[in-house]
Fold this protein.
Amino acid sequence: MLGKKRDEEINAFLGKGAEFSGKLFFNGSVRIDGDFHGEILGGGTLVVGEGARVRANINIDSVLISGGVHGHVDVKERLEIFSTGKLVGNVKTPIFVIKEGGIFEGTSRMGSSESETGSADIAAVGGVR
């Protein structure tokens, strides 16, 4: 899922079976495969692995979802839901990609922090509910 650039290497990891409640602040990339409840803030990329359960308000640069996310999600660059991913909640992002089989239930607002009225891209490939 992530490229080999140094700034895209995983800086922190919450493994399958692990549970965490609270605020997570970070820069870089973080992967969650366990259960997280709270708030996620920072700069970089959040990777929600298959089987992960995240109930949080999220404000980050990019989010890649293969597991379950429930909450308000404010993304500065790109939000992508993969075929095994599910997002329930309100979303604000300039680029919103939903792969075939991915599920989104909620409201979305397409805009960037630079211009709320600027154009935005959305891509959905079949199976979107």
Observations:
- The longest strand covers residues 19-32.
- The chain has no helices and ten strands.
- The beta strands are 10-14, 19-32, 35-48, 53-65, 68-70, 73-81, 86-92, 95-98, 103-109, 121-124.
